[in-house]
Amino acid sequence: MWAEDLPPSFSNLCNVETLVVDKRGSHLVLSHTIWSLAKLRYVEREGTCSIFDLDIDKPTKLENLTSLKFLKLSCSVDSGDIFKRFPNLRTLGFCMDCSAAEQIYFPRLDVLNKLEKVGASVCCSGPKHVHQFDFHFPLCLKEVYLDGFNLTSDALNGIGDHYPTFKCWNYVQQASKGEKN
């Protein structure tokens, strides 16, 4: 898989509200260019995209962004810090690439006080193991879709007990080789 950046000229498009990129087979890096698009409300990527952020301490935010789909996250403990940059996000879709991670962390989404819908998938190469996560969802969340997570029934019950406001809950567990869903 190869990556592409948004060209620097994108920063000149200060009135862009919707960014949809459909280029299958590649991974898009939303470089520093993304932070200059203050009116951006909707980002969708066919495939995955990641955010390359050299100035993480700089207080740049995309206040108008309400929908971000198909973000690729690492499974490191600090991967959720990026969400503080999108305070009005209502819809989020992301995948977690855990191929190289020894310890897997689910990002803290409780910083997103307006989040209503989240879809998350996990891709881990290697042997299948049970995932132990601390889920921190905002209380306003209504819809959750988890794909590829291998959670115990106790973990699933815990999510249901802590977040009774969910109106839609989808959980797809990945099958092992030779196992049927």
Order of helices and strands: EEEEEEEHE
Radius of gyration: 17 Å
Query: Which strand-content bin applies to the residues?
Result: 25-35%
Q: Kindly, what is the distance between the CA atoms of the first and last residues, rounded to a whole number of angstroms?
A: 29 Å
CATH class: Alpha Beta
How do the strands line up in the largest sheet?
Answer: 1-2-3-4-5-6-7-8
Helix content: under 10%
State the total count of DSSP E strands. Answer: 8
What can you tell me about this protein's structure?
By secondary structure, this protein is mainly beta. It has one domain: Ribonuclease Inhibitor (Leucine-rich repeat, LRR (right-handed beta-alpha superhelix), Alpha-Beta Horseshoe), CATH 3.80.10. The protein contains 1 helix and 8 strands; from the N terminus they run βββββββαβ. The chain is globular and about 50 Å long.
Which features would summarize this protein structure in a list?
8 strands; disordered C terminus; single chain; 1 helix; Leucine-rich repeat, LRR (right-handed beta-alpha superhelix); 181 residues; 8-stranded parallel sheet; mainly beta
How would you summarize the topology of this molecule?
Elements: E1 2-5, E2 18-30, E3 42-51, E4 67-74, E5 91-97, E6 117-123, E7 143-147, H1 153-162, E8 168-172
Parallel strand pairs: 1-2, 2-3, 3-4, 4-5, 5-6, 6-7, 7-8
